[in-house]
Amino acid sequence: MSSKNEVQDFKTKEPCTHKARGIDVAELKAQCLHCDLNAVCHPPSLDVKELESLDQWFPTRRRLQRGETLFNLGEPFNALYAVRSGFFKTLVPNDSQRDQVTGFLMTGEILGMDGIGGGRHACRAVALEVSEVCLMPYGNVDEIATSFPTLHAHLNRLMSQRIVQDQAAFQILANMRSESRLAAFIVDLGKRFSRLGYSPNTFVLRMTREEIGSYLGLSLETVSRLFSRFQEDGLVDVQTRHLQITNPEGLADIASGRPAH
Amino acid sequence: MSSKNEVQDFKTKEPCTHKARGIDVAELKAQCLHCDLNAVCHPPSLDVKELESLDQWFPTRRRLQRGETLFNLGEPFNALYAVRSGFFKTLVPNDSQRDQVTGFLMTGEILGMDGIGGGRHACRAVALEVSEVCLMPYGNVDEIATSFPTLHAHLNRLMSQRIVQDQAAFQILANMRSESRLAAFIVDLGKRFSRLGYSPNTFVLRMTREEIGSYLGLSLETVSRLFSRFQEDGLVDVQTRHLQITNPEGLADIASGRPAH
DNA sequence: CGGCCCGTTGATTCGTCTCAAAGAGTGTGG
DNA sequence: CCACACTCTTTGAGACGAATCAACGGGCCG
Asked: N or C: which end of chain B has fewer CB within 10 A?
């Protein structure tokens, strides 16, 4: 189904968003000990010895081409995925209608938590660029919990944070107008990039206008118009996918629902 | 602040939604062993002996009057709450604007999971009628996890299900029109009532039009108009708060985004 | 070069919000 | 017990925002 897309290679024209991490493709065995995603996957309290023994649990990585599917809706759930590099979207295939994009995930974020409850994935995850994920077999998570209680508590914290994030997104969708939605979306992306050590104000959009629109409940035309308007108002500088926030405060104001008109 | 509201007693005029559970107010010590919420709080695999020892962990209950706040936004998080009886709303106080309702919770559902991640509650929970909750001190949850791994896995499952639910709500908000939103809301309420052993097609709305509107991202007038229209179309029978679904299939069709026009 | 996907912009239509007023239900105090 | 106040609900008229339909330009690939 997506075999066509997988062939497309991603042109590396981006200015700053994703530095090469120098990962050897042959090296499939993960080493949590030296992984720079440590802070995400594990609580800070784990010491070196514990991390070393953890390496028995998280052995595999997987590399995906642009457009490739990591897991599908309805697929049996048996692992969580930590995004090591790259960019993903999650979507729910809406029969007959266009697919609904339910989220975007970048380096350092966890994919697949929706599957824990029902034993099956509740959405489809697709790579938006060449990406690499770290597999955490979930059958083991229970066992891990007993050996590393703090690790399990950490997973709980991650899931709870996710719930809070969803709530926030929910709120934006429920009572913000289109301009606030898009502004909030841009600000949020910036925050997440800055957490990775990149600039919060200059980055490359990995997704199309249509995907943004689907995610925000807007038509792709509205998204395009808003980008143009933001540019006119001196809030951002957009060159198709390349985005620079030139007036972060103004954008944040709009995001919080205080329109200037 | 809510001391005024607490005095109001709730008139028990409802036809079918909440049978009296005959709970003795003096009996504050919870007994998970004989609790009819067993299936919610605990995995099915726990045997009687395990349940007995669990009673050391979940000792307290709390009774709330209508309008009373269970916990507030920003309050330190230290317990999860299982709704034993009654009805709650969660909301985020939007400074200056009207509050945003983020959810409604009924008997058998878990309140407070948003607080696990940040250590503070991310919303406010208010009782919409006389309600009773079961306190689960969260400091203990970690300890419980080690003694009862299946219990902790159960909590994970609950949180994951919550994430999936939120995603679904997100989707409805993102690309459904008002009529589909309200229809989906009604159908969802019915499902949840039926899980409690009540009719999925006849129940009492515990919340105002404004609260429904806030939750669905609609104005209260739109909600009211939609109820009227659904009634005209023979889908439901509404007497202010008393609701009966007269055409479940038709309502479900609208909920899923297949409008008849 | 031609085809295709993506993005932009314009004209029009339709849905929902806002403002407004009046009716219904409930609790309060004389 | 009734009048009053208050909140919640219903319904209408008008304004505004976003979707839709449509056309065109640009970049990328075969």
From this structure: C
